[in-house]
Amino acid sequence: MKVSFHKALLQKRFPLAISRGVHGDSYNVFVRVEKEGIIGWGESAPGRNEGAQNPEQVISELQRLVETNINDKSISEIEYISRELKTSPCSYAGLDIALWDWKAKKANMPLHDLLGLPLPKSKTSVTLGIMSPESAKDRIPLLFDGSSAKYLKVKLGSPEGIDADKNMYNQVLESIKPYNISLRVDANGGWDTEKAKHMIEWLSKRECDYVEQPLAEGKEKDLKTLYENRLLPIFVDESCRFSQNIIEYSEWVDGVNLKLMKSGGITEGLRVLSTAKAYGLETMIGCMSESSISISAAASISGHIDHIDLDSHYNLKPDPASGAKMINGVTMPRIAPGHGAFLTNENQT
Ligand SMILES: [Mg+2]
Prior knowledge:
TIM Barrel; alpha/beta; binds magnesium ion; 34% helix; single chain; Enolase-like, domain 1; three-stranded antiparallel beta sheet
């Protein structure tokens, strides 16, 4: 198996501000595997919290893994070696996605069919970062005019405090009136327990469907007090990286948000979904700053997922890859063998 790496710039239409800072343009690593004339594509989005700081670290971690001679090994065996080598989840995700793409192409099946999953039905959210009410007023028509999107995820947990959160959210409520859309909120751990309790009650009277990651990662024990008498469903994102995390707080949350860059790809991602379902939790799938390659991989496993947040590739200008598109509000993989996506220009380095 020949494995090569392509670094490509992801330029954003709009930078995304969340509670912990602003995400602008970034470099991702595209992983290409080739064997028996079949090519598989994967993607790694480096992230401080997902172990690899930059594309160079992703490439060096994956080169080290490839040098162990993964040629005739199964995906599970390669994943095991990656853990032995302490490969960062966001690095390994790129190779894991490429291996699954290759496997489905080899079987001449779309990835969702290979995994026995239906095509997605749930419509995706699009995301509104933390911003002033004036900016929110300008941005919302840009997101929804001429779009089939039906859900807006509003980022709160502003470093300026909950009054800033309320002012922005009130403007959002006003600005969505011409559109038939529903709201959900992601605080990215920007609240303490007291503020979270207050905000969940406040949002429950203002058309919010659910709240994601109200408390910071590491504060999972405090979810217990938040969960009792909660007025909105509570999801965790940063607190849910691997399937084994779920056991710790399964009685104190309504659902978990899977991201392929946190789990290290599809192999562990499927375990996250199975574990969440086994504990009676709802499921969500989201993304980091990703192109349509890893979004297509995520869309391919989203057929049984309750809430979808696969929108980062819609915010790229241009998307260096081609794949999943929004069809009637659903982020739908291209119907082709594999996950259906590929790097548009392989000469990018
Ligand atoms: Mg989130």
